[in-house]
Design a protein that fits this description.
Layout: E1 2-15, E2 18-23, E3 26-32, H1 39-51, E4 55-56, E5 62-64, E6 72-77, H2 99-115, E7 122-123, E8 130-145
Parallel strand pairs: 3-6, 6-7
Antiparallel strand pairs: 1-2, 1-3, 1-8, 4-5
């Protein structure tokens, strides 16, 4: 599972001209699912995302989590995060989970974020063409990969 985590002052997603998710201060999570991902990976990633201290405290140090600031979360499925670009100029997506695997994991991921205290998680539309708008705050952008946890 690979995530691009962006600290935002606002973000939204539109699919087929319809606004499907919008948040104010919080996290935009771009989520790519690998076929070998497990529920353990989801648990680890949800914990990492919800507890990552990347928001400023009263001394302007990145010391608070999205939970601490009572921020919002917008999750967008994005299989292109698992693109292989080693060979040629056309990315290969063979490392991305097919929908039959990815959809249940995406839904489990959303459910576990909600159960961790974020009842109003906003989302895009799985496998749809989406327009994502954001104001990256900082900018702060972090890549997290369960296949290479560092």
């Amino acid at each position: 599972m690979k995530v691009v985590l962006q600290r935002v002052s606002e973000a939204s997603v539109v699919s087929n001209g319809v606004l499907t998710g919008a948040i104010n201060k919080g996290l935009l999570v771009l989520l790519g699912i690998h076929p070998d991902d497990t529920e353990k990976d989801i648990d680890w990633m949800v914990s990492k995302i919800t507890q990552m201290r990347i928001f400023a405290d009263e001394e302007d140090k990145m010391n608070l989590s999205v939970k601490d600031i009572q921020g919002n979360i917008l999750v967008i499925s994005q299989f292109t995060l698992l693109a292989s670009t080693k060979k040629g100029n056309r990315p290969s997506y063979i490392k991305a989970a097919p929908p039959s695997i990815a959809i249940p994991f995406y839904e489990s991921f959303l459910n576990k974020i909600r159960l961790s205290g974020f009842e109003n998680v906003q989302t895009g539309v799985f496998a749809a063409d989406m327009k994502v708008h954001l104001i990256n705050d900082g900018p702060v952008t972090i890549v997290i990969d369960t296949q290479q946890p560092e």
